[in-house]
Structures are given as C-alpha cells and as structure tokens.
Design brief:
Radius of gyration: 18 Å
Strand order of the largest sheet: 6-7-8-3-9-10
Number of helices: 9
Low-confidence stretches: none
Distance between the termini: 31 Å
Number of strands: 10
Strand content: 15-25%
Helix content: 25-40%
Largest sheet: 6 strands, mixed
Shape: globular
Order of helices and strands: EEEHEEHEHHHEHEHEEHH
Length: 237
Amino acid sequence: SRSFGALRAVDSVSLTVAAGQKYAILGSNGAGKTTLFNTITGDFPPTGGRIHFFGEDITGLPPCERIRKGLRRTYQSSLLFRELTVRDNLFLAVRGVANGRFSFLRPRAGHASRVATQDLLERARLTHIADERVANLAHGQQRQLEIGMALAGAPRLILFDEPAAGLSPAERRELVALLGSLPAHMSFVIIEHDLDIALRVAERVTVMHNGRVLKHGTPAEIESDAEVQAIYMGGRH
C-alpha cells in the first residue's frame, strides 16, 4: 500500500511476477498503476506491505541498490540526455551499472563497456542512428532508446511505464517486435493504455481500479471479462 495523506493511492495490492514472465497491468487514469511502479522501484516506498525481489526483501533499499540487483524501469516522460548521441546515452547506461562507473577515463576500443554498448544498439534496433543527437530523434526512436538503456547490465526485471504513449501505428508495431525479442529469461511488467499492445505482449494481466486489484487473469480471460469490459472498454472491445 502507498498513501499520500488521506489518499490511499495503492491499496493492499498483491501480485507475483515469475522469472521470465511477461506481465501487464491495466487500468484507467488514477487507478494507481504508476504509483505501484514507484513503490516497487523505491521512488515512493510503500507505507504498508513488503517487496521481495528474487526472494530478497528490498523494501528498505534505495533505488540505486535495486538497480544493481537487476531491477530497471522506464518512465512516462522521457529521461534522456538530449544533447548527446544515441550511442553515448547507451554507453552511460552501461557504465552506470558497471564496476568503475565513477572513472573519468574513456574505455578504449574493445573494452567490455563499449562492446556492451554496441550490443544494446543492435538489440534496440538503433544501429542506423547510433551517432544522431537524441534531440533530433522521432518520439518512437526515443522510446526505443529508453528500452535499450533499461537493458543495460543484464536486468532481471524491467518495468515499462506506458512505452506506447504517443507512438504512431508503425512505431507501435516496432515496439511490439522489440518487446517480443527480449530474452526469454528476462521478466517485464508493462503499464499500457493500448490494450491491443498489452494483451499481445503479456502472458498474465492484472487490472487495477481505484488503487486496488480488480482482476487477475490471462489476456484472453481479461479481454472477455464482462466487468473489465464495462469499466475499461465501454462494454465492447
């Protein structure tokens, strides 16, 4: 649970994401989805309850320690170094979770950090714009870059906060392909208003309403549930 004064934004939410599972959280604006993410990552620690990550209680750890344990997230609003290139943004993400991250010496060609950066360029499908300034990128390309940065350092769980927001139909297809290409062992949880994307990429779905869990189920069960349709789909989908 997470309260802000008298407002209980997340109210006794309990869920489990298995290793390697692809999970979606749905709900209207104000349902508590992003606040739930913030409690998991430590941005707003819970006012009640515990968070366990691969069996370890991380409730009291600061966000930086959770990142080093393999937890990552993206945000609704892009948090990128706009005046740097795509390659440099990915390089900084790699260095941020590596040993020696405070060194001011730029690694030479062939160094593990530069090899990892090139790997992320390929995995995020950004090699063709590696040396473009982020400020010049299309919105969808910036979203791809955020996902690439979240992949730095072999994460075990990534939280995606509305990655399809503002994307064109073509960019949404690219996003679905990118999420589908993530390693099978890597778990993710996606918050998404685009139900077609959420139900296509997820194996398990939780629907939230007014800070509480309304339903758990498979994509097929959620899509056909009359209560979910009435609240979130206007009775039809």
